[in-house]
Amino acid sequence: MSTDKIQQLKNTRKKQTKPKKNQVYYALVVLAIAIYIYATFLKNNAYYSRFWIIGLLIGFTLQRSRFCFSASFRDPVLVGSTSILKAIIIAFIISTIGFSVIQKQYVMNDINNIPGQIYPVGIHTFIGALLFGIGMVIAGGCASGILMRIGEGFMLQIFVLVGFIIGAMTAVVNFEFWDKTIISKSPQIYIPKYLGFPNASILQIIVLIILYIAISLYHNKNNIMKM
């Protein structure tokens, strides 16, 4: 796509953009509801009130940063931008360091004493990832992106949320069958068990850094949004 064509599309989009409505009143109503829910949690169970605040902060961060797994894989293909994908890789690097420190403390004396869940990896992982990826692109967002867009007022994502609920309920009903047939028979792979914690963590961070550099070069070469 030529630079002139891109600029023409941008100008057309600007002309089609409608003036934004004042949404301060809506914000005040939502804020009042959020405070009321927090006060209710605080009165009945202070433990849940913490999760409410954390959820609000995460939602605000996602909305302002436009953080979305779907966009992170879609944008490099459509417009050559890897900004969101780079943010996700940075998040992976930070979480790798954090989880390594936490898990190291638990498994210091017993490698089998692993906090959390180590799920089997097999053909079901590949099929599930493929189906989720296809659905994610068709729906226009991942789980967090869908919830974020519903909050922004996008009506289409409400139908996607209904699909999420139906899919989740179907999975729960049929999980026992798939678990006995495939999942439970697949191996559990825990890399630190084979390489040790320092080596596994360093290796993962190095791989993520290499990916970050590679997609940065791709971004500089193919990003049409900067033209």
Automatic annotation (TrEMBL):
Q: What keywords is this UniProt entry annotated with? A: Membrane, Transmembrane, Transmembrane helix
**By its UniProt entry, which Pfam families does this protein fall under?**
Sulf_transp
Which regions span the lipid bilayer? 24-41, 47-65, 77-102, 122-147, 154-175, 195-218
Question: Which domain of life does the protein's organism represent?
Answer: Bacteria
Q: What is this protein called?
A: Uncharacterized protein
